[in-house]
Amino acid sequence: MVPLVVTDVSTIPAEPPDDILYTHKVRLVDSLRVLWDHREIVYTLAERDFRAQYKQATLGIMWAVLSPVATLVIFVVVFSRVKGFGTDGIPAPLYFFVGIMCWSFFASSLGTGGNSLLTNKALLAKTQFPRECFPLETMLVNALNTVISFVPLTLLFVIFGRAPRIATVWVPLFMLIEVAFAAGLTLAISSLIIQMRDLQQVLPIIISLGIFMTPVIWPFSKIPSHFHIAGGTMVHGHWVGGITINLQVVYGFFNPLGPVITSVRQTMLLGHNPSWGPLAAAVVGAACYLVFGYKIFKRFEVNFADIA
Amino acid sequence: MPTLPDGSIVVEQVWKKFRSDKTVPLFYEQMARLRRNIVDRSAPDYRWVLKDVNFEVAPGESMALIGVNGSGKTTLLKILSQVTYQSAGRCTVRGRIGALLSVTSGLHPDLSGRENIFLYGAVLGMSRSDIRRKFDTIVEFAELSDAINRQVKFYSMGMQMRLGFSIAAFLEPDVLLVDEVLAVGDASFQQKCLQRIGEIVRDGTTLLYVSHDLASVEASCDRAVWLSDAMVRAAGPTKDVVTMYRTAVEQNSNLLNTKTGIVEVKKAEIRAVDGGMLRSESEVEVRLVLNAPEEAMATFFVGISQGTAFPMFVIDHTGTMPGGDFEVICRLGYLPLPKGHFSLWSAITGHPKGKKDPYLPWQPLISFEAFGPDRMEPPEGVMALSPVYVGADWKVG
């Protein structure tokens, strides 16, 4: 039997010695392995949210179809009257819908995923699985909703008597870029929002601004691919020669969603090859967002349960 | 360091600090801290909720964490389950951890009981096939077979608790951390939970149990650690630690006459009628010397507790309370107490003119030692909380 040990409380110092202070080590590879071990939790939580989302709505899962269609109607009514934004000869509803699908996945991931740590406070403070399960789980729900909106997309193809082109096989790659970009940003934002609740108010504003900064309505080709910086000569109001930079590539790095949406349109609707330059920039950009976003998240996760 | 077997817990020099005010937005706090750092370096903006905590639990052992509210028990469990992280020191837990820090937080109100079993099971670390295998056992244990397809928001609190606990009860971890989750629920289900915890421990799971219910601590744990003001005060066999804790809590509450009501308590004592020690089975007398402002009808209560606020028994008497100084003598023909340290409680209720308060609020008046045989222990895993019938003879005047 263990003896009774009574501590002399007065021997305990006011502060811990420096050499035992806890440092939170961030190793992304290890974190990924742990996350993989807990993948069932991501599925289960996503299932929870997906079921709960439509549980008491009369139209139930129909809303996953109806809400993007409603957005589409608004877009077509409003923007088909605006001159100057060509749709590359594609029927406007199809052109817009592709953009809306890509955008709404991104926007809703950010919107719900960014707040996911707050909405799951109760679990966050009481259970022990990896914290990134929460943002990722909400992204999975949004991905499911997006997949469901393939139904109206198919209908649009039928209505306009078109078929997806062979080049559509590239689309999964583009989606991968988008998911990586969205995941990185969502992870970073969710870890910041829980510490600074002001961002919760700012986020919707940024998201609604984002749709205008992304080629959902306007064509990506509006961004100059040969932007002149120095040298060369001016001929008839245009620069010839000199140093130019491809702004599409620069844009693609910072907002991978631009090349993604354009490439989906180019391949699925027009059957062209995607423009590889901006797309490569998007791959690099999305990878950076993912790595840094995950790093930021892991860096801050020490405090989540204490401040939730 | 040799690798520890599954089911061991080692806590070495663990410290944890909390920010002083969690509701202040970070920005203002940062500004305030900056200002403090410049102006006044002495006031820290945090407090320690755990200081230099050390203990070890071997596989298959059961240990209790006891202490008053805010002494750091829950925080320690949260650190062990890696819900939060320590500020300094090292925590090692080997094997699969099952942490039951709250029974209902994992339940989603819009989902049915069935869906919630899969959800909460997964959240607690069970695989789907595991849950499917144990599904019927869980439902049966929770006594919810009729309501299992109903949405959880239509469950009563007790039903939610039963569902939550039942899922966790079939987790089969190497280390089970349980935090004060049996506080709700009816007595028979509490008993069932304790029995289940006992079974889990017998199957070789390490148990770390936090509770204010000292009877259940004594029933289910071999060892105990007493946390007080963020520090470990004592560790050792449950019985010794619990006794120390009880004594300290009573001394703390500063027994004699803390709250005065309308009636003033001048003296309170409990003594053997034969003038000797307070022995089990002896005839004893509770004597209260009181002062009341006016004559009135009143009900007198006397109760005896063992440390906590829950009396083991209460006896009452309704009669005329004289005005001015008076004495209440309550003679118990038979003292139904084993050896130990007890508190004498009292209250006087009635309808004082123009006031809502009772004449004397329910409070401990004195503590005393009873002498006699040790308390007889109930079988393992059973709480000894039974109503006691005590005959009494009253005289007021």
CATH architecture annotation name of the largest domain in chain B:
3-Layer(aba) Sandwich
Specify the number of helices of chain B.
Answer: 8
Class of the largest domain in chain B in CATH?
A: Alpha Beta
Total number of domains of chain A: 1
Q: Would you spell out the secondary-structure blueprint of this structure?
A:
The complex is a heterodimer of chains A (308) and B (397).
Chain A (H helix, E strand, L loop, with lengths): L4 E2 L21 H10 L1 H16 L8 H17 L12 H23 L1 H4 L1 H4 L8 H16 L1 H10 L11 H23 L4 H16 L13 E4 L2 E3 L2 E3 L2 E3 L1 H8 L2 H13 L6 H32 L1
Antiparallel strand pairs in A: 2-5, 3-4
Chain B lengths: L8 E11 L6 H14 L6 E12 L4 E5 L6 H8 L7 E6 L3 E4 L12 H11 L4 H15 L14 H13 L5 E5 L7 H16 L3 E5 L3 H7 L2 E6 L2 E7 H15 L11 E9 L11 E9 L3 E10 L5 E11 L2 E9 L7 E11 L9 E11 L21 E5 L1
Parallel strand pairs in B: 3-7, 3-8, 5-6, 6-7
Antiparallel strand pairs in B: 1-2, 1-4, 8-9, 10-11, 11-14, 12-13, 12-15, 14-17, 15-16
Summarize the structure.
The complex is a heterodimer of chains A (308) and B (397). With 308 residues, chain A is mainly α.
Structure description:
- The complex is a heterodimer of chains A (308) and B (397).
- With 308 residues, chain A is mainly alpha-helical.
- Chain A has one domain (27-307).
- Chain A is 62% helix and 5% strand.
- Chain A contains 13 helices and five strands.
- Chain A has helices at 28-37, 39-54, 63-79, 92-114, 116-119, 121-124, 133-148, 150-159, 171-193, 198-213, 247-254, 257-269, 276-307; strands spanning 5-6, 227-230, 233-235, 238-240, 243-245.
- A two-stranded antiparallel ribbon of chain A has the order 2-5. Chain A has a two-stranded antiparallel ribbon with strand order 3-4.
- Chain A is globular and about 90 Å long.
- Chain B has 397 residues and is of the alpha+beta class.
- Chain B has two domains: 9-251, P-loop containing nucleotide triphosphate hydrolases (Rossmann fold), CATH 3.40.50.300; 264-396, abc- transporter (atp binding component) like domain (Coagulation Factor XIII, Chain A, domain 1).
- Chain B has eight helices and 17 strands.
- In chain B, the strands form four sheets. A six-stranded mixed beta sheet of chain B has the order 5-6-7-3-8-9, with helices on both faces. In chain B, strands 10-11-14-17 form a four-stranded antiparallel beta sheet, with no helix packed on it. A four-stranded antiparallel beta sheet of chain B has the order 13-12-15-16.
- In chain B, strand 12 (296-305) and strand 13 (311-321) form a beta hairpin.
- In chain B, helix 5 packs parallel to helix 6 (187-202).
- Chain B starts with 8 loop residues before the first strand and ends with a strand.
- The model of chain B has no long low-confidence stretch (mean pLDDT 81).
- The interface between A and B is large, with 42 and 52 residues.
- Strand 1 (5-6) of chain A pairs antiparallel with strand 9 of chain B, so a sheet runs across the interface.
